[in-house]
Each structure stands twice: as structure tokens, then as C-alpha cells.
## 1
Amino acid sequence: MNVRRAIHIRTGQSASIAAVDTWLTRHELEVARFDDVYSACVHLLTNYERIADLALVGADWLADDEFNIITYIRQTWPRTAIIVYGASDKTPIYDVLPLMRTVRRQAALDELVAQNPADVVTELARRAVRSDAPTIVPATPAAQPEAGSITDSARAAVEAENRNSDSTSHDTRESRPEQSPSDNGGIAPRSILSAEELSALLDGTDHG
Amino acid sequence: MVDGATGGNGRRKGSVSPNARLLVIGSTALSDRVARALPRATRASSDTLLGGLWSVGHEAFDGIIIGLPLDQKTTRGLRSLRKVAPDARIVISCPPGAEPAARSALESGADEYVLEPLDGDELASALRITTPPPQTAPANRLPPADELAGLGDCLRSLNDGPQATLDRLVDALRKAFETTGVLIELDDLTALAGDVQQPVLEETILRGEAPAGRLALGSREHGSYASRDAIRLADYARLIEAMVGQAREQAHWQELALRDDLTGLHNRRFYDRQLNELIQQAAEQRHRLSVVLIDIDDFKTYNDRYGHDTGDALLREVARLLTRCSREHDIVARYGGDEFAVIMWDAEKPRVPGSQHPSEARALADRFRSAIGEHAFKCLGPDAPGPVTISGGIACFPWDGKTRTEIVGAADEALLSAKRTGKNRIELAKPAVTGDAPKPADETDES
């Protein structure tokens, strides 16, 4: 899979930010970097045509009301892989949602930056295919999201994760909470990718 | 600062409509307060700056009101808001203690700040919401019903001529303004109702931009005039000019409709109408009234010999002579063809029991005949066959009839009699009642 463009919202711990920046630079991705969610939001609103293949969001310094940036990324770019990284146990687990992954431990972050970004995105796409029709609100101007729609789902997963004491699990089938239309701002959900789209996506990857 | 409670950098100069679309970023309570302060504006709200920013990216807002703690995060959000919505008016709502921070926020993209509690005028001013000046609805400018009724009477009097219209207008205005008097002077017309020795309110009546007259009111019967009365008076001045102008125009057309084109005399339509009115008046006031029907003897001969143009000239000349010989209050009309009619009214003293046919009518009719007979008609030239002569028949009210038809019929009979008995003579109608002392039908009770 060809991964060329990324955005990085640098609202995490400095060490983590540096590791991610280094990773993106090493793989020669075109990166738009933002020090706060507001400038990132402006980018989404004004440069939505510059679709990123990968979005990285530092969670440690995000205020509760700023996690919605993840929802806005998803609404703007439905096929972008989103990785949220943060050391705090309170960082929501977005793995339950397609093309999303949460990295909550240093070891996991080290493991992430050791991979090729294309492999990471491919793996997330493969998981999206395996998952049972996950839902994402499409990005349309009329679709005003309810605050925390994605994050709420992810946070519900944190609680389940804590109960299972396995915070690194990527198996969404076991931890995915029920998601109702209201989780997505009351708008009827649809699959992020159709079966045909995912099939085409996977055919184009370097990894099989 | 606005009234010491708002401050701003005045970056945006444009004004915003009262129906502005606003975004409130802050608590629900703030949104409610904005709703109360600016009830005509429509609102969207977000409880977070990021949510507000996202909304601004998808919808155009005229103004954004932010009621959040003015910390570093809000400052960053402000800068982003300004980027996404460069034209929206951004106003910070903050408690008085946060004013220094609000002032700093102006450097980050806010246009203005207002101190809580929110005041509608201050918020509108900060958002540059301009309320158009209240316009008096046309319905409010309509006079009360009784005043309208008075104006209706004036409109109905347009047919009665400009003076009658003006006379009704002064009465209507006197009631409308509850004044001791009204004076209207317009061109050569004047109308006065009550006393206007010392006008209290005065308005020039303009025709176009030139003064054409004046409208003056005496003192108010109760209390004093209000400024609104001066405005009303100016309205009335325009109305008066328009109404009198209309009355003049109507009178002009009426005059044309009642005149004979050839001779300039009144025509038969006018004559009939006038005769009806005068008969009624004579009956009520016990006056005598005489009708003289005049016919040019052998007029066909002149037409045949000299042509119709000369015939027309002859008719015009006879008309002029009849007018000259009649009295000011007599009515001379062209009855049709070469026939003329003259109504002589108020020529005699009021009837008393035993009155007889008026003698003056006969004398006047003879004057007509001799004046025409002696006149040298230039239109006929030196070879005129002889003097132009007329025959006439006289009928008098009430002796010869009580209605127009009866009187005209009697005069016509007398005229035919004059023609039959040699022309160039005036005949009195045969009395309707024969006897030694003829009495009109309506005076039988007076005998």
C-alpha cells in the first residue's frame, strides 16, 4: 500500500512526539504537523482535498473536549488510518473502530515506529475488512457530530479493556461495544468501505 | 469600548442585520442569554471551542460569541476561528474580572468584548448589528375614521367645483385639528371656517416647488398642537393642492361638456338641467321664471345662399347679440340648429296673490328682436337680402306650466304661433287657465 501523506497532531508527550516525527521523516512521508487541535481543525477545513493516508494524534495533552478532532478527521477523510498514541491509561481505545488504532504504551509505540507506515496502514485496512461492517459518519458539511461520538465508543472500550487487563489487544470482535446511530450524531451509519472497495485496497498492497 | 462596557479593535467595519446568524460558543446559559438579548437573530451553539470551529467551517455566521475561560487554549482557538471565518464578527463575553484577558483576546482575533451580564444593546453594538430606524407603517398614517369621512365628503364635492371643494375642506380640517379656525388660500380661491386672526400653525401650499397658497390654523380648541400636527398639516397642504387641482380639472371638463362648440353658449344639456333646478327654486321661493325660445327667421335661406360657413357665422353673431342684450343672471343657450333659449329668472318680484305674467320678459325679448333686426351682419356682406329677424315664444312659470316640459312646450307653441303669424315677432304663451284673473295652478289656495 502506498502511504505518502500524513498529518501529525503533536499533543502528546515530547518523547513520543519526537519518536513519531522521526518515524514519519525516516519514511519520507509528506507530513503536516500541528501543535494543537485547532490548527489541525483549520487544516481539515481548508485542506480537505489533501487527503492524508495516515493521521497521528498525541493524546496526552488533549483536553476532554479536544478529542473530537479524531471524529473530525474521520469525517473529513473516511479512509485515512488514524493512530492515537498516549501514555495515559485514560487514552481511549479506538481500535474498536475501523482504520483506527490506539497505542498506549511505550513498547507499543516502539513497535509501531519500527514498522513501515505502509504496513501499519495495510494491517488496519485488513482488520477493517475482517470486522463486521464498522461504521463511520461520512464527512459532509451538514453532518454536525455529537461531541465525542467516536471517543465515547472508544472510552467504552477502555472500560472493557481494563476489565480484561489486556490493553494491547487489537481484537475488535471481542471488545467492540455496541454502537448506535446516536453515537454518530444521530445520522444513520454506513460502512466506511464496501467489500469491493476493501478488496481493491488490499490488492494494491505490497503485503499479502 | 461602547458605553464603558465593551471594547474592541474595530477590525470589521460592515454592519450586521438584526436577523443575523450567530454562533454561541459556551454554556447553554450563555446561549439563552444571547437569545433574550437578540431575539431576532438565529443561533447555533457549541459548548466547545473545537466544536464551534468545526461548525464555522461548515456554515457561514455573521457573528460568533465566545463565553469560555480566556486561557491559552481559547486564544489558540480564536486564532483558528479568525482564519476560518475572516468576515465573522467575533465577540468575547466575559465577567468584569476577566476584562484584561478579554483585551488580550483582541490580539488573537476577537473583534470586541462585552462584560457580563449581557446587555442587548451592547451586544448588538459589539456585533455591529444595526436596527433600521422604525418606519411608521402606512396604516398608522391613516387619519381616524371621522377624519376620513370628512375627506370623503370633500372628494364627493369635487364635481361641485374648486370653491365648493375648498369650502368643505376647511370644515373637514377644522374638525380634524379641533381648531378655532382654518383658512385656505389657493390661487384666486379663499375658504375660511371659524377664526384665524392669529394663525398658530401655517403651511405653504406648493404646486410642484412653487408656492401656490397657504393653509393656516387658529389656536387649538383644547390644549396645544403636537409636532405630529405640523406633519399632518404638511400632508393636508399637499392633499388640498391635489384635490382642488382635480376639482378644477373636473370643472373644466364639465364646462366643455355643457358648452356649444359653435357659439360658445351653454348647450341644451346645460339648459335643461339648469331649467329644472331654477323651476324648483322658483317654486320654493315663489319667484317668477320665464323661458324665451328664439328662432332665426328663414335661416335655411342664409345657409343655402351663403353656405354653411356663413350660416355658422350668423349663428355666432346672433349668440353674441343675445348674450349682450340679456342680463347677467339670465341664461342664454343654443337650443339646437338655429334655435336659442333664454331663461329669465329672478326678473320679477316674488309672486303675490293675483300676480300676472311678467312684463319684463316680453320687454327683454323685444329687445333681442330689435337688436338683431338692427344689426348689420358683416358675414352676410353688403348684399344681404335684408335685416335678420327672429321670432320668439315666451312661457312663464307657474302660469304656463309647472314643469320644464310644460313650460318649454308652451314656449314652443308660442314660437310656432309667432312664425305662423308673420315672423319677426314675439308671442306669449296662451295662459293655461282662462278667465278674468288667471291664476297659476300652485296658487289656487292664495286666491
Note: Chain A has one domain: 5-203.
## 2
Amino acid sequence: MRYSALSILRHALSGNRGWKPAWREPQPKPHYDVIIVGGGGHGLSTAYYLAKEFGIKNIAVLEKGYIGSGNVGRNTTIVRSNYLLEGNIPFYEFSLKLWEGLEADLNYNAMVSQRGVMMLAHSDGQRDAFARRGNAMRMHGVDAELLDREDLQKMMPYLNYDHARFPIKAGLLQKRGGTARHDAVAWGYARGADSHGVDIIQHCEVSAIRRDDKGRVTGVETSKGFIGCNKLALATAGHSSETARMADLRLPIETHVLQAFVSEGIKPVIDNVIVYGGGHFYISQSDKGGLVFGADIDYYSSYAQRGNLAIVESTMEEGVSLIPGLSRLRVLRSWGGVMDMSMDGSPIIDRTPIENLYLNAGWCYGGFKATPASGFCFAHLIARNEPHHVARALRLDRFERGYAVDEAGKGPQPNIH
Amino acid sequence: MTSSRITNVGLVDHSRVVKFSFDGRTYKGFEGDTLASALLANDQMLMGRSFKYHRPRGPVTAGPSEPNALVTIGSHARTEPNTRATVAELYSGLVAKSQNAWPSLKFDIGSINGALSPMLGAGFYYKTFMWPAAFWEKVYEPVIRRAAGLGKAVLAADPDRYEKSWAHCDLLVVGSGPSGLMAALTAGRAGLRVILAEQDFRLGGSLLSETAMIGGVSAPDFASATLAELAAMPNVTIMPRTTVFGWYDDMVFGAVEKVQKHVAVPSADKPVERLWRIAAGRAILASGAEERPLVFGGNDRPGIMTADATRTYLNRYGVATGRKVAVFTNGGSGYRTAADLSARGVNIAAIIDSRAASSDFAPYGVRVIRSGSIVDTKGGKRLSGIMTNRFGYDEMIDCDALAMSGGWSPIVHLMCQRGAKPVWSEEAQAFLAPDVGPLFTAAGSAAGHATVSECLRDGAVKAHAAVEAVGRLVGHVNTPEVEGEYDPSFAPLWYVPGARAKAFVDFQNDVHVDDLALATREGFGHVEHAKRYTTSGMATDQGKLGNVNAVALLAGMRGVSPAEVGTTTYRPFYTPVSFGALAGTARAEQSRPIRTSPLHGWAKKNGATFLEAGLWYRSAYFVQGEEKTWRESVDREVLNVRQNAGLCDVSTLGKIEIFGSDAAEFLNSVYSNAFLKLPVGKARYGLMLREDGMVFDDGTTSRLSENHYVMTTTTAYAAEVMAHLEFAAQTFWPDLDVRFVSTSDQWAQMALAGPKSRTILQKLVEDDLSDASFPFLAAREVQLKGGLTARLFRISFSGELAYELAVPAGYGEAVADAIMEAGRDEGICAYGVEALDVLRIEKGHVTHSELDGRTTADDVGLGKMMSTSKPDFIGKRLSTRYGLTAADRLQMVGLKPVELDKPLKAGAALLREGVEPSMTAGQGFVSSACFSPHIGQWIGLAMLKSGRERIGEKILVWDAVRSSEFLAEVCAPVFVDPENLNLHV
Amino acid sequence: MASLITCPHCGRRPREEFSIRGDAVPERPAPAASEEAWHAYVYLRENPRGKIREYWHHVAGCRRWLVVERDNLTHEVFAVTDARDMANGGAA
């Protein structure tokens, strides 16, 4: 069923009773070529691209809850590719390019909105660091502009220029960055995958990974019984350590919770995504009018999808410091997402030492923007058994070999990346 | 007049008139009114427009769950959009405006969306606006954004103050209705430290609108008497206007107190709001229950509100919501409201009871339509009639207000914020509070009790348990007799069949039954999917009013029980909380602590310009005479240091005193280079690695005596290094005898650098400073003339003859003054961190610009500081990994632009000459750069692939974000005195 | 747990006084241990959902490193021990 303005009109005239389910609710088959564990953004996009781009048809996505119940539905919806390191920029830029074509590709409006992502610098050193980042982006053909304070005052008059603890000195703007409607991304990929024959099986929890006497993965035990597969792909960020443990793998990951917030809806006031360099606060305004924002993680390991008041307060402190006019607006809701915090702050898309087992993990707090490229590259890896060229650096063995992709330069302590 | 005030009824003070304005018109209310009650008293039922279809709306509640009556209160920098009129305390001079309507609340163009509604069903936007692709951001989205949102924000700096506080108690009681009061009373009499928090400005909860008699007095009088007793107890704290919004770990509750939200111009002496973190031993949730709207065709017209709200406006505020009020109910609540209305002389149009029979009594002469339903309503800005239906027969009944009751839902929000889900009860036809353990229990109607007497008793019982649990004796608390109770039973009615107009579930977001049906049809029947697809429950009321109805409707559509559908996740905040209250005092210049050096005053009087360095303000440069640009000052300072001498404040460096018989061994383990044999009286430059082999920090450590060292760290990493040392000592080598204390703030430290530094310093120091007796890297205590003991280190960041002198912080400014005085004839100058940076770049000394957490010692030319003889030091083992020793790593080099006038800037990229820019063509970046007045051109340090092999090569400095591109020559990263001759003079 | 921590030296203190480092289970290997052992120590984590031990630092208090035994799903705290006592084989 193709979606369009015309289809909406046609269905409206018939009382909207003709709409069909966006995806089927199939029972699992006994065996699949590829089983993807995790019906979040990454799992669903992996399934979609595997079916559409790599010609694999017999695919299942197993989701223990409802699809999109993980971090694809609890993030701050930012898409961008303003990275620093050679291991990251091409990957995230590939992702941004896929975002740009997503609606047409999926026939689903995920409301990708290239509103611009502005990272603010508050010292000369930070400005130079952003220049370095901007130049790295430009070298790869990614758009980046370094704006000065006067430019910023015109663009964002509501920022705290006069009474800031950390004065605004410059901003690195990526105009092509922006936001997308997070839930719709999961739904769009699910609908797309389903239309290519992928079985999306919700409320199907994997409890064990079955391996043969040679150690090769042959299938999974689930709450709906055993399901066999040729290849098993894990896309369970937040819970990667738990799923990998079923195959006796230990990962370079700790699980942490990141809170995010939305304010009451207000008429449009903030056009761009703004990132505060004097702390970790970032904010944008959704199409519904809510200000969507966040800052630090809670820093302790947590699988609970909720955080604590100390971080709530520090987030608001940073927000009001950056945008004094937020003070009288109200915060409506907070939530928490549990994330794979990896040892260098970068993700992993790789084969594992276990035959037939593939891993997509370690997305830290940056998984949403990566959704398209993560799926595409993971699909490439699963289908061809070799990494997609933009994801070459995101190997599992990079720590052993000394090739960490450490954007923040913080070293092997997951909670400070 | 339709809705109006009834003389001398209610708890408002009819003798105290309060003037306020709404949409530019002035009105009068009474003290004790909310904005909503005052507007209703003035027959202003229309208070807002809905989000999507811009439908005219009036209040549907009289409390915090209000989805419709949202207004903007205040003006200019005190503008507060989306304020619920139903809880906004009326005050003299209050200025309110309607919102989300254009050109006016009465005539809103946006209401045309209603006509298009068949095409604007749930999730319609996901299916369209995709063609042409470029139109989304340019055309469609801006239109949607403008149409969406509610109130307008001003985004001006807030003139008012906020603050935060902790509170501690044995028992927190949330809510001051019958159960909350009895709980507080029971615990209070038993001597527990009790906090009674109530979101309302008047305490008493449902008692304030209750007509039943309690212990022989009216319910409000009972509340007042109980509160008076509580107020007299020193162990009880009563917190009105305080909303407990969140339940966090360890029984910590977040609450926000409105201190001055009920005055037009707040006093500057008090905050407007105060954030409380309440650490409670135990807590009782006495937050009451919410009456559910009925879901029938046209259920959103202004004038339709819950029976409870109707009753509250009547009994508490003395406002009749209409002249002729109809009642639509599935239980006793509708009859109770009808009785109260009738008793106040309000005409009852009819009671439409969905049940075939009941034992409820209608007021005398009031018609009851049993097995009745409403299928449509009429009226524009206000309800004018209802289309009832009984056994298929329609009847239009005129009325100007409707009180509806669809049963009750306990308000269990707080108890469900930490993972536990509410539990469906078939018997109560409601979701009840989950069992979250003995520390936090629900009481009264929050626990599913319905009558006043049950609530009173339950509050006492729950508090009794809390008192016993902490081992106190329970004083005797009588539960008073209640007369005039009603029958609270009801028969479930989730959807009123036969709707001929939209039957709304989420009023604010305009989600109606067809939207939920569409969501179910399209596979979004899971409660979370339905919420996200239809936006039901996502409005500012977070589904307080509509969620249970939505769940039951989804259950009906899916053919399962509400238990199986379950609820969406409850999360903070119970009601929205201002950014300001959560931020407290930490804003603007006070958003983070400010650290100033003990030499700040010295720097200031010498003309320093300061810059932020982390939390520090450091002196950047010192403008003298006619200098117009910072460069002029910096160039002068640099040249003067190299020619004469300069004094620089380096107090911000981290300083750690290290003691213990194993201190040497410890240092040897945390530094990559050898420290075991550092002689007493000597300083040594040391490099610290992380365990992954990357450089962590650098600095000097000096041995002042056998078992006493003093370490300096970089300014930026002072705290991290201290924590690192403590960690290593406590966990890696717990048996080593070593202790640390940070003394960063205790010492004023100054670098005196330049060929004349010894001459100057000798004037102030008793000890002999000749090269023989105080050579390079000497470090020891010296006597200053006048008797002060100081620490002197002969170390140099500038490459010149230099000393660092440390004196107790309080003496810093006096000593710095004395040095400046002593050096006047030698041409001393003050120099700042900008000049310091130039001096160190000229010498190729690294800072965290080079040591960015991705560099090895070898990368920055310090490979020889990696001891090969030590069996262990932090970072040793992993430093030999392949990737850390690869030949193509970035290595530090010097750079000089080929053309002398080209300004080199940190952050520029490096490319091979003649190569197209690309990621793979990238050769590195400029890490530090400055104008070197000594060399007479810009110079820099750069991290370049295999850099050390490429000295002499021309490389393209590519700075696209600053539109600059030129060639530079790769050189050794030392520009001045490569043999270090100046150090040893 | 993460609102209040009971420091064995300072008593019940708010979370803001602490910083957190991460998993307290891995032990630093002997210098000569295998590369695998070192890699595992620095990079690999069990990261279970449930009961864990974690390093907390009472930065704004006694400045002792503490081992907090807690549940990372419920946030319940079972024990807080000085890290040195733990390293010396004290409470476990």
C-alpha cells in the first residue's frame, strides 16, 4: 500500500477504514537465512537493507517487546555527521546521505529535517578544536562552517551572550544536520522490511543461542520456540553484553543510562539543534513544539530506563545558562535510555570470533543518527562477510590491536566518552 | 449569564475582590479563586483552543490534570505559556492571554483543520509531504511547526530568583485530602518528623468541595481544624503550593514549591520557586483519584466537564458552571453532583444514566434517563444542547453545561515512576497502585478507596503502619464519623456507542476514538505504539485524564482486557516543572564555580585581561601603554622574557603533596619514566600514561625530603590526576605507604623566567642561587628576605633561565609585588598565558593541545621517557600494541609557513601538496600555533603522519573553515635554543 | 543508590559528591601477564544486568575510592566498602 497525499484523500472519503497494517504479524518459521535479534532502529534497518540491497529474502527480526521499544524511541532525534576522526566521519556522512533520501526510499515520512546542528565553542582552544573538526569534515566533503560570535548573535539572539559563565566565542555549524521523527524511523524501516518479505516477530525474546559441536551458531531459543538460522546478527544496543553473553562473548562495553527531556509545546522559537560547549547540554525543538534536550549520562552503570534528579538538575542548569529564556518554560517529561557505552566511545560493526555470529553494538549515545548506515553496513557485512568500506574502523578487535577510535580522547573508561 | 457566582457560597473570600485580565479585558474574582474559577464566575467558559483542530475548549477539570484551559500568564520576561488556569492561583494584577488561536480565541482560523479532519487522522503526516523532497523543510514543515505548539515563549532572561533545598523526614505525605490529613495527623501525634506536601494553595484536597459532614462539622471545617492541630506540632512541616513531581532512588522525592507565583511582582528577597529534594524514610501517596471523562460524540464542547470539577467549582468556589446543567454518568458521582447543584438552586436538565438501574437518588423533580447515552452535542463556543439516545430514540435536551462521570482512576503516577506498573483491577475497573514495598504506600482514593470515611480510615491505617515500622508508639487517632456519604459505585462505560461526532479521548491533542481505531487497524495497537502513533497521552497533561480511557478502548478494539493492554510508562514529572526551579541559583555567571588564583589581584592591578580556563580565570596578557591589540602585548611580553625577565602566574597548576616511605616506588609506578632515584632537592619532568598506553598528563615532581614529594600537574588535569593517584594507591598498590593531599589552592606559584631572573630573585632570596648551588632542576625550600619560607624550583617552560617560586597563597600577591619591584631595573614584565604559550611553542614543549588523549609518548617525541627497565608502570603493557607503534602515526613536528606573512592557526588540516582534499589524503593537523616575535613569523606545532621523517618537506596547510590555504615547511619542533643552552646559564 | 550513597567514612551523602569510574571487578594483572589478560583487564567487561560492583570516588567528601555493590536494574545498594579494604581482601 503506497502512501501519498492521494491515498490519504481516498481513504478519508471511505472513512479511513481501508488502511492495512503497516507490517504483518507472522508466526516464526522454523529456519531463516538471517535472524536479527533486536527490533529497534538498527535491527529493522539492517533487515530492510539486507532484503532490499543485498538480495537476502529469508530474514526474521526478533524483538522481545514491541518494535521500536528501545533507544530508537527514546532519544533526542538528532542526525548529524560532524565527527572528528577518520574512522567515524565517512560512516556518519554515509548515514546522513541515507537520511537525506530516506523518505523517498521508504515511502514513509520520517520527518528528516535538516535544521542545522550548531556546536558552540566557549574558549579559543575549543574554537580551534572545532576548526580541526570542521576541516576534517570538509576534507571528506562534509559541510561545515565555523561561525563567529556576531554570526551567532544574528542567528540565535536568545543565547546568553552577555552574562555567560563561559562566553560564546564561535560555533561549528553543519547545515545538513538536523532531526528526524524517531518513532517513525523504526516504523518506516519495519514497513519497508516487511514489504520485502522480512518477518518481524514482536514479543519474541531470545533466551539462548544454539551452537553446533564446532561452535558455529545454528539458531536461537526463544519464547516462541527454537528458530534456526544460517547467520545470527545481534543488534541489541543497551543490552549487547547480555545477548553476547549467550554466546560466551565478553564485550568492551558497559551499560549506562542517558536521560532526555521534553518541554511543554510552545510556538517555534529554536530553529536549530544547539550543542553547548560549556557542558553537555543540547537542544532542539520538535515539530510538535516541544523542546527536546539532554546533557550528561548518569555515569553509573544502569539497565533501568530512568535516571536521577542530580543529572536532571545539572541539565537544567546548563540549559538555563545557555538560554536564559528557558527559565520560565516547563519541562514536561524525562526519560532514560540504556546504552552500550563502549571503551572508546565508538560503535562496533563486526564479525565475532564465533562463526555465523555478527555484532552491531556499542552505540553509546549516538546510535540514532547512525540508524541508516548502521543497518546498511551491518547488512553488507552479514551478506558479504566483509565490512563496508565506511565502517572498516569499527572493528571488534581494534582495542587489542591499538586502533581505538576515540573521539573524546578519554581512553578506556566508558562513562566519560 | 450562564455560568455565574453564587453569593456567599464556597471557600473564596467574597469580601476580597481581585482584579485580573484575560485577553485584554478586566475581570473581577475573589481571593481564593483559581483563574479558571474566576473566569467561569464571569461566564467566560471558552479558555483555549485544542492543539490540532483548534477546537474551542473550556476547562474539563478543576485541578492539575487540565488539558484544555491552558493560558499564558504574565508578560515580557515573566511570560509563562501553557499555564493551567485550573490551578493558577488568582492574584491582583494577573494578566492572562489565550493561546494557540489566531486571530482570536473566538475566531480562530486554525479551526478549519477540523473540516479537514478525515485527512488529518492519526499519523497522517507519516504518509504524505514526501513529494517533492525539497518541499518538506521549505514548505510543509514550517507550516506544521507554526500550526503546532501551544503558547508563545518570550525567551528573555528571567528577572526572578530560584533556589534549592534539602528536606528530611520520617514520613512524607503527598496530598492533603482526607487520607493525607489523617496520615499526617497519625504520624505527627506519634512524634514522627512529617512533611505534608500539597500542590494546591489551600490544603484539604477533596474535603474543600465535600458536602458530607465529618465528626459533626463541615468537611472544610474538619480540614481546617486538623490542619491547625498539625501546624501546632513542631515535628510536622506543612508545605502548601508544593508539588511532589518525582520519586527517585533511595526514597528521595523531587518537589517544587511555588513561593511567589501568586503575586504580580515578586519580592526580590524570596525566590519565586524553590526546588526541594525530600529525603524521606517513608512516604504515603495520598494524591486522590481522578474522575474519568466519558467518551461520547461531541464530548469536548466548552461547558462539558467532569462531575467532580462541576462540584468543585460549585462547592469550593461558589461558581455554577451553567444555569441548566445536564449530568451524564455511569455511577453515583453524577447524582452527587446533581444533588449539590440542585441544593444551590441550579437547574438540572436531566441525569442521563448509562445504567439500567441504580439505587442513587436524583434530586426532587429531576428527570433521570436510564440506559441513556449522549451521541452528539451542539453549541459553538459553549454547549447549548445534548442529543441523548435511549433504545435508539433520539432526544435533544437543551442545557448550557454538562457534568460527566465515567468512574474513577486512582492517581498512582509517583509510585509508577521507578519501573513498577499499575495493576488492573476488574473489581475497581481501574489501575491500582503497584506494590513497591513497605516504604512507599498509597492511601485513600489513591489506593482505590472511594468514600470519605474509607479514605479517612485508610490514611490513619497507612500512617499507623509507618509509625510502627519505625518503632514508635501510635497515639490514639479517632476516625471521625461521616454523614452524607454517597454510593461511589459505577458501571464501566468506556465508549458510548453511536457517536455522531468525534468522541475525544485526549482532549488537548485532539485524539479521538477513530484515531485509536485507525492505529489498531494499522498494527499500532500496542499501547506504546498507539500513544506514539496517535499522540494520545503526549500532551501537557501526559494523559492524566485520557490514558485509562485510551487503554480500555484499545482493549475493546483488540478484544482483550485492559490488564493485557497495560499502561504506558509513567515518568517524571507528575506535572510540568519550570526549568528555572530545577536550575536554581546555578545560572548565568553563577552557572559554575569561579576559581581565581591567589595572584588574581596582582594580575588585575598589573592590567591583566583574563580568560576562562576550565573553572579558572587566568591572566591572558597585560596591556601596557598604547598597545591596541592583544598581539602587541603578547609580542612584547615574549620578547621581554627572552631578553630580560617576566613574571607569570602559574598558581592554577595542580599541586599535590605526596608523603610516605613508599612514595618513590609509587611515583615510579605512575610515571612512565624513572622516579625511584630522584635525589632530594631535585625536580624531574614526568609523563603519566593511561593504562591504554596513551599520555594522560605531564608535569614535574620534586623531592623535598626523603619521604616528601610535591607534584605539579597541568591546570586542566589537576583533579583527574589527583583522583588517578588516589585510585592507584588504594586499589593497585594498597600496601604501599603513600599519602596525598591536593594543595593546589594553598600555594601561590609564579614563574620567573628570562636571563635576568636569577639577578632579580637573588635580591629577595637569602639562599645562594648561583648555578653551582641552585642548578637547573634544583628544587628546595628557600628563605625569602623577611623570613618567609618558600619553595623554589629551577624549572622552565619557556626555555630560558627560569624559576618557579611557590609561597603560601596569602603571601602570593605581596611576594609577586616584591618581585616586580625588585625586577623593575632589570626590565621585568608581567606575562600571561598567551605569552607562556608562545614561549613553549617556540621551545616545542607540549600541552594538552598535543596530548589530546590519542597521543603516545613517542608521538610527541618523548619516547625516551618510556622506561624500558622498569617492569611495570601504568600504561606500559598496552603501549606496545601494534596500532600504538605503527609507522604512520601522527608525530609532532614544527611548522613554518613558507611565506612569512601567512598566519598559522591551530586546527588547520595538513595535506600533501597538489593532492585533492579527502579524508585519506589527510596528513594531520596543526595542534598549536602562534606568532613568534623571536622568529618574526607564525610558527606552529603539528601532528603529522610519520612526521619526523619529513623534516624539510613542504606541506599544504588547509584551513577550509577559515578560508585559508598555504604551504608550510615541516621542521623540528624547536624554534629557539635547540641545544638548551639558556637553561643552564 | 544514585540519590544517596552511604559512605563508610562519611555516612549518607548525596550523589553529587561522588564520581564514578566503572566496573570494580577486573583486577590489574601482573606486569608479565599475557596480552590477552591485559586486554581483558583494560577493555572487556562482564556488564551483567543485576548485581555489580562499581568504583565510586567520594570526591567531595573523604576522597576515598569506594566499591559500591549494587543492582544496576533496581538501583538497590547492598554494600559500600572502602576500595583499599576490598583490595586487601576485606569485604566482598
Note: Chain A has two domains: 24-81+83-108+182-252+344-416, 117-176+255-342.
